[in-house]
Amino acid sequence: MNSEILKAAIFIIGGFAAFAAFAFWNNYKRKQQRMAKIRACYGKIPEREYSLEEFQAIGRYYRLKKAEGFCIDDITWNDLDMDRIFQDINHTWSCVGESVLYDILRRPQMDEAELNRRERLIRYMVSHEKEREEMQYEFSLNGRTGKYSVFDYIYNLTEFTPGNQAEHFLCIGLVILAACLIFWNVGTGVVALIAAAAFSWSRYFAENRRIEPYIASCRCLMRLLETAKVLKKWEAQPELAGEIQKIEESAAKFKKFASDGKFVVMSGQAGGGIEKVLLDYLNCTFHLNLLSFYRLVREVQNLNDEIYTLADGIGMLEAAAAIASWRETLADCCIPEFTDTGQAEFSIVEGCHPLLMHPVANSICAKRSVLLTGSNASGKSTFLKMAAVNAILAQTVHTCAAESYRASFFRVYSSMALRDDITNSESYFIAEIRSLKRILDTVGSEGAPVLCFVDEVLRGTNTIERIAASAEVLKSLKGKEVLCFAATHDIELTYILEEDFDNYHFQEEISEDDIRFDYRLCEGRAESRNAIRLLKIMGYNPEVIERADQRAKELMEGRMLSCW
After folding, report:
1. Contact criterion met (CB below 8 Å) for 483 and 450
2. What count of Cα atoms within 13 Å lies in the side-chain half-sphere of residue 115?
3. How far apart, in whole angstroms, are the C-alpha atoms of residue 174 and residue 196?
4. What is the pLDDT of residues 425-449, one digit of tens each?
5. Which of 39, 85, 249, 451 has the most CB atoms less than 10 A away?
6. In angstroms, what CA-CA distances link 133 with 36, 42, 93, 139?
7. φ/ψ bin of 291: left (φ > 0), alpha (ψ from -120 to 50), beta (otherwise)
8. Collapsed DSSP state (helix, strand, coil) of residue 39
């Protein structure tokens, strides 16, 4: 008999050991697969595709946070294709990391100390490969939430209004009272207990349906606290000590939440063994998880600002790892330098647009506003975007796609890729003058100098009024507090504004049957025209081309005289 018991015990213990070993091996294998993917993706452009809902969810953290300082407005963000820039930089593995990275790109810094702090974290991620990979693995356990933002979930907790808790205590009291009646009269007590339990269960399920969506919010916050706990093992690293200490201080304020939250989250999970079934019966009868949840909500509502501090700290570490990876994808990049001379200035050497596979690098040193001329497709718009994007990257991710970058701290605006808005009955011209006015209203206001980029100013109106109005608008965008980079086809503006703007141009080479652009920035105004020559290359009637050429010369002579 003892031998049979021993065999059974060995069999049971062996079964448990085999199950534990299998679970351990399975977890180890999953971790190794995830780590292999993290290593393989580092230094490569992410291939992820985004839905509109995902982008909206990623941007929710930026929109929920309190507005602090200057932010890139929607017009500038869309003009410069910053969503695509974000996609290239987004080497993050969690919803928290990508939300914080997006927020970073929308909020250029005017504080060099903050940018140096980010640089310290980025360099740590570059030089400590093993630690970075382990951290990225921990971040990946937070996962992504698809079309729903994790911060929507957490924000929901701060908006939740608990019901009347007296009702829950009444249910508990009725069940206990009915149970006590059994000792007085069994029949009466059983009937009363059944009735009290039925009432308690009905009220439980009604309220549980209301709080069920918020349980996911608790789960998200619990996962952040778990990440904060794991990050503690790197607190001895001098480059990370300050960051992890801030994360720990924020997480410590959720100590009560962490203990109560486990009970609430476990109660809200589906499935489970016999212990989960017993827990469900207890909750249905005594509303334990509901009362715990109400305590959690009160704590979260009292610590709302700490949630953002916690998310910022964890997200910044993950964003630093993402920026380190993105730098590896750039053919050339540099750390920006910033000046404080009291004069707005912008200098970039061999600057490239980070989205172009084979960019042509250009350089410029500007201490006053710049007017760009040149024919269609010669590179004016690309140059404007290159300069604007690098200015934003310099003050956000502390990285420029250039040999060197030196400039003032700027508030960056653009007015470039506008179009008619038929849903708002707004013409292109109306949209354009609204866009320009927001820049003019900013110039001279308190804050850093304005760096603005205008492509084809006032193109939505007739030639005479366009030149007249453009000249006066651009004259307003000069001085110590503003640098304007404007592109135009109106050569007249280069003469009207030559006392206030430096002239630069792009040029082309035209052969008998072809036109080629070198995309190189040149000093001075453009002297060539290619529209009529393109008609010839495309095979238009020679008489049409000859007459057009003659008419263009007459018009140009008349217009040049009118400038003087």
Report:
1. yes
2. 21
3. 6
4. 456 678 888 888 999 999 878 889 9
5. 451
6. 10, 9, 11, 10
7. alpha
8. helix
